[in-house]
Amino acid sequence: MEKTAELDSLTFAAMLRQGAVALGKEKNTVNDLNVFPIPDGDTGDNMHMTLKAGCAALKDNLGTLSEISAAASSGMLLGARGNSGVILSRIFAGLAKGLQGVIVADTKAFANAMASAVAEAYKAVPVPVEGTIITVLREGAAGADASADLNHYFETLLSAMQISLDHTPELLPVLKDAGVVDSGGAGLLCIFQGMNDALCGRISEEELAPASTPTAPVVELDKFDENSTLEFGYCTEFLLRLMRSKIDLETFDEKVIIDYLNQIGESVVAFREGSIVKVHVHTFNPGVILNEMQKYGEFLTIKIENMSLQHHQSVNQNNASFKKPQQPYGIVAVASGEGLINAFRELGTDEVIAGGQTMNPSTQDFLDAFSRINAQHILVFPNNSNIKMAADQAAELYDKADIRVMPSTTIGEGYYGVGSVDRSLNDIEEVVESVNEIMQSVSTGMVSTAIRDAEGDGVTVHTGNFVGYYGKKILSASDNRLEAAKALCERLDAASRDVLLVFFGQDVPEEEAEKLVAELTATYKNLEIMLNNGTQPVYDYIFVLC
Fold it and tell me: CATH topology for 232-311?
């Protein structure tokens, strides 16, 4: 095989796509590397969707290696899902930073970019934990030999990553107890194995085939006819490539663009990655904006949608209108299941993002939700520890409002947190402090079905058992769902609480849920119990105690 001395943009783009292909084949295996015995493993899916978003951003716009890596990084930034996806996006952001200005990279240049990727990955995690994806990346990069060609570098990189991955259970007891290696590290290794395949020319025609053209959305033309009035303007989105022929790329400040957009439009989200500026804006005059933007560059993509038509088509989906006056506070929450989504809306949530365990929303999903809220301060309730990093990343990108990502890791904390937002207060710090205090008083327990045998916290779990747990602590297990649920309430010390909210899931008959509440009412006579049909997936029951 001919050795590769330098990496160009075409090869790197193929490597990214092949990495996505490789992970796509193994994502379920990565998902199954789950230390908890319920179906909440979605690391493979999150990393795959994140990497696919990076590949989609490439399209056919091949430039230098620097430009390609920056475009992929930008796509992953917006498409990042779950903690593993956010970390993956930061890894490739670091790689892009290390390749900035590089037309083609030799082995030493790529190794330096990998060092930049390691630094960015560690910065992305508030409290770095060894034995995870960041360890596999760091030890892989440290063990790679950059003294020869790129093929040799990748061979030694993969070998070092595999050794590191195999060692993760020794660094994290929770992995050793579950008999698995770190799922994020396994996903990363899979990606780099695919990248190496492409570097070595191992790509099939089928794997390189472009994705099929998406089906055009159905437009209800009669909702905006020749007598209609344009009430809400146009949702305008585009990618603008800044051109050296029009500006000085090194000294150009994208604030010029952002300031102009804020003057002529609303709900502006704009940021720069390398020579590409991504823009989202609501305006009545998209043509004027497009003409102005061509002073600085040329368009890579453009999407313009009539929001008056969108408003009529989705009037029942709680979408905010274009002309809605600014409010002091807005609320975004994440929930899964029609019943839970409606429950959050009834509490006054402005935007409910459909998502949760096994279906984590992306950074772009949060940005879109923020743009639909006209508020000075926006409080975000992720309601899942695996969603918070994507929310944090979106908060850093959004500059049209003060975004506060609340530390809600469960539906229960989010539900009481949203309900406690006092919109009459003038001080946002006072609002946040009050919400946090309420959330700390809430305990949330869940009942789900075990997908494998497990032993933990003195409880033996068999595949198919119903498992009751609090956080990552198993509190009950039984082959009878009601028995597991009742035991969970007892272990949560329900007798010492005042209120119990019971949300039953999509697979639970209402008669069973009513029977459970009746039995709990008889047991806990001083406990006020309220039953709600959450229709949530994954969790048969969610108990919220306060």
Answer: Alpha-Beta Plaits (3.30.70)
Would you say 146 and 111 are in contact if contact means Cβ atoms under 8 Å apart?
yes
Contact 478, 462 (CB under 8 A): no
Which residues 6+ apart lie within 8 Å of 299 measured at CB?
A: 238, 239, 240, 241, 290, 293
Integer distance in angstroms from the first to the last C-alpha of the chain? 66
Q: Among 441, 483, 449, 453, which Cα is nearest to 466's?
A: 449
CA-based angle 429:430:434, to the nearest 5? 115
Alpha-carbon gap, residue 328 to 375, rounded angstroms = 5
Which residue spans within 429-505 are E strands per DSSP? 443-449, 454-456, 459-461, 466-470, 473-478, 499-504
- Domains of the chain, by residue range, sit at 6-207, 232-311, 325-440, 443-545
> Could you read off the pLDDT of 223-239 as tens digits, one per residue?
667 777 776 678 888 88
pTM: 0.73
**Topology of domain 6-207, CATH:** 1.25.40
Q: Name the most confidently modeled range: 253-262, 310-319, 521-530.
A: 521-530
User: Is the domain 325-440 a CATH 3.40.50.510 member?
Assistant: yes
